[in-house]
Input
Amino acid sequence: MLELIRKNAQGIIIWIIVGFVILGLSSFILSSYIADNIKNYVAKVNDNEISNRDFQIAYNNYQQQLQQSLGENYTRFFNEDFMRETVITGLVNNALISQLVVDAGFRAGGDQVYAELVNNPNFKDEAGGFSVSRYEKLLQQIGYSKAAYEAEVAQLIAQQQLTSGIQQSAFVLEQNAKNLLLLEQQQRDISYLNISKASLLKNIEVTEEEITSYYEQNKKNYMTEEQVKLAYLEVNITDIAKSIEIDAEELRNHYNNNKAAYIKDDFVSAEKRIKEIQARIKKGEAFAKLASEYSQDPGSAANGGDLGFFGKGVMAAEFDEATFKLNVGEVSKPVKTQFGYHLIKLEEARDNERRARHILIKPEKVTPAFEIVKARILNDMQMTRAEKRFYENADKLDRLAYQFQDSLEPAAEQIGLKIKESPYITRAGGGQIWRNANVLRAAFSEAVLNEGLNSELIKLSDDHMLVIRLKDFKPATQKSLDAVRAQIKATVKDNKAREKADKLADGLIEKLNNQNAGEIADSDEAVTLRKVGFIGRTVKNDDKNDNSSLPPELRKAVFSMPKPVGDKPSIDKIALGTGNVAVVLLRSIKQGSEDNQQLDAVERHLIDAKAKADNKALLEYMRSHSKIDYNKQDNNQE
Output
């Protein structure tokens, strides 16, 4: 190679070789630079990194919570960008608090960690007590060591020490709470003249010139919405599962080989048996004797069902609730928990602890007949076989839609899908999947709408995905005057009625100086006098409870009016949401009274609000005094 370079040093070959060497070195240097600058975290708070794994776990948990509370509709309210930003903000806030906790020296003692563990319902055995074996098994399932998990629990307790310290240090002056209570309970005596827009509308005419003029001045308000019709391919695990045929023999074999999977707890028989024991107790048989004979709780049966003393939160929630409602010597009705049916007898009560006996009848494990679970087996087997095909199809769809960006046909042919068409939809969305925020964002994106490309793979749920492309586009167009004539006429007429009502209200206020409200109302059919009396800030604070129909904006405005001076009422006009106008007469004010129970509630409310404000201020302070680096390669945080 060196000889070749020497012999051809003056020729073109040397420059080609040198060019390759330079290109190779440049590529090496650039790749090294990029590698050194790749951020393997979502955000970095001072020296602590929030890993992609931490983010993904938090994101999945947040998504599951939203789906459980809203179902598939959660995408109508929460898009991926919003959820990502919310999760990252929460993780950053948590990191800030964690660092402050360490710096401030907050620590959790071993007894505190232990108490947290024994009160965790996930770690309790069938009798409702803490189970070491269950604790270790669950940690193993989620991939945690005991040390790591207990360290996280300790950190959480330490954070709670900080937040509870802020909560407990918040205070308000008693006089401030009293002042607020008096204001909240204040009542105001009012009557008002109601000017009916509907009555005024009867005598209002609208000319053709007014309609044309309004149309010309407000043309931009009378446009059709732009619409798109989409072609799309979708992969849905349910559809795939339905297409999979499984014969009866295969279903029967699956049932015979997997009977354990279809075993269920027979709570009906357990309830019948506990009621039989309950009847014997009512006839006078000793509870302890029956517990020793029939209870299926191995930890207490030998002691006549005696559980000893325990506090709230130690046993299962249903067991706790029933026990702490009993009087000493009383026996509960059958109580159902995840472990079976219980009869509970309260033996002793002291402070926040109870000593009780119980009889536990566990549900027997029963295997339903094949015919009963046949449909379930078919669905299970179809879904299991469909899962692999679903992910394969989703991956192919994603790859082929990107590879052939100007058509869906190659993907449809290779995967065996049918190209479907959507109805025309606007940016506001439509029915079914066309109201999904991710779909709408893609449909009106630059790539799909203006460049005519396939969208990226859109996730509707974990087992339903699609790719869309533009089929047809209808731009926004100007509606003709004839098309909106009736709408404009109604609008102009309504506006004129509102203006007339407002002017009439001004005239009524002037007349009130010389006439009483009753006389004024009698002289105009559009005006009605309504004598209300004392009202509070809310309906529940009214002297009478027949003012629930009082317009809320009127009630709110009344408490902003100045106090009346002497016998002269305070007067104001208030535009109501219905288009009516009210001329309000505030005659007197009745101060609220001090109630110790209500005062305590107000103080707690103010303290809670103060504590939340303090927590927010602390986070803002921490943010302003910390170095926070968001990975803009992965998110859009600023």
About this structure: DSSP finds 24 helices and 17 strands in the chain. Residues 1-36 have pLDDT under 50 and may be disordered. Residues 30 and 36 are 10 Å apart (CA to CA). The longest strand covers residues 340-350.
